[in-house]
Task: structure prediction
Amino acid sequence: MNKKTNIRVLVVDDDKFMLEFISLLLRELGVSEVLVAEDGKAGLYVLSTQVTPVDLMICDIEMPGMDGVEFLRNIADQKYSGKIVLFSGVDSDLLKATERLAIVRGLQVIGTLAKPVMVGALAAILEKLAMPVLKTVDPSSFKQIFNAEEVRQALIDDHIDIFFQPKIAASNRRVTSVECLARWRHAQFGYVTPDNFISIIEQNGLINDFTRNILKKSTQQLDVWLQQGLDLKISVNVSMENLDRFNLPEIYQEAVQESNVPTDRVILEITEGKLGKDFAQSLDILTRIRLKGFGLSIDDFGTGYASMETLKYMPFTELKIDRIFAHGAAEDSSTRVILESSIKLGKAFGLNVVVEGIENQADCELVAELGCDEIQGYFIAKPMLADEFTRWLIEYEKNNKNYWNYR
Ligand code: C2E
Ligand code: MG
Ligand code: MG
Result:
């Protein structure tokens, strides 16, 4: 019980009884500080006056005046970085839709509660809060804090490290490849995730040097692994802003050749969102990248715009379904429908289909059953530094020997 006492909770609900009731339950469960607000406006006011941040907000989505959706939009704009639990008496589809909207806005929704609120459900949510905190920096708390000069200096000082996250084959669960994810090793904040600095890099004309540097470091690491006898491929993220020069295929080929690794062990991941910008130029460059032997992946499939057009014209070899369509699919029928049709679509185009963002066993089993080729997500492993990955791989292979032997 004691571990929860320093958690600060804000409850937002227009129903005074509910406010009293939930506050009482929270105190019973050991939360010492419960703040209340009778509507969205009051909630925003309470948040704005806090010196110490609120850890958890329990928010009704049906409120007169400012409803839950508007309230969430406002707190997302204000960069609220605590956890959120949504609750309501509305039907579960609407609650789910609001939850997704909040996640899309970058908020951390850790659960939903249906009315009437049961003490057991509330206790389960508090348990989630008491889980150990990740070492990496929470993106929502640092958005736009950094300026171009700081980022430029970090690149000059070589403060960018690469974390590697494994992908496994759905058929036999063996590790096939790793995605290379940039992290800024920051003196004050520890490892900062790319959502906080990639756009600054893109907007300040630094993306070409940055990507080439990431590609170089990643392929050098691949070379080490290949020499150790590991049969791995790597995936490197390429920004659409990179496709601004026709000699890009040569630049990437050179970077890979300098590391002595074959280009067909390198997959370049591109987010489909902005592919339409200069379609002919993108098509030209991507086709020549393929001709050089690289694999080409459509990243975050389903969240962009030109998906069908992209599939029809662009020479992709892989489709990576965004985690928004994978997370919770085993429990949510509409997520599952989108997931299943995206996998079928990718397979029909002859692409290697990867599902990312798999966080639990049920979703992992489901995507394998639905026919995807590769799986990536926290359920397999979080992104890690190279040494940590090598150690993890040894353990993983040891633990999975039995699984492979019986297949
Ligand atoms: P992405 O390419 O879609 O990479 C997957 C992101 O999902 C990574 O976030 C990864 O840590 C996260 N992730 C993986 N499994 C799970 C899971 O099970 N649950 C959840 N909630 N998340 C999971 P990360 O490393 O913060 O990267 C965010 C994005 O930043 C990447 O999305 C990619 O678009 C971009 N990025 C990363 N490194 C680079 C880079 O070197 N160059 C460029 N241009 N973009 C990069
Ligand atoms: Mg990616
Ligand atoms: Mg992705």
Remarks:
- The radius of gyration is 23 Å.
- The longest helix spans residues 207-227.
- The first strand starts at residue 8 and ends at 12.
- The pocket of magnesium ion (ligand 2) is lined by residues 179, 237, 269, 299 (CB under 6 Å).
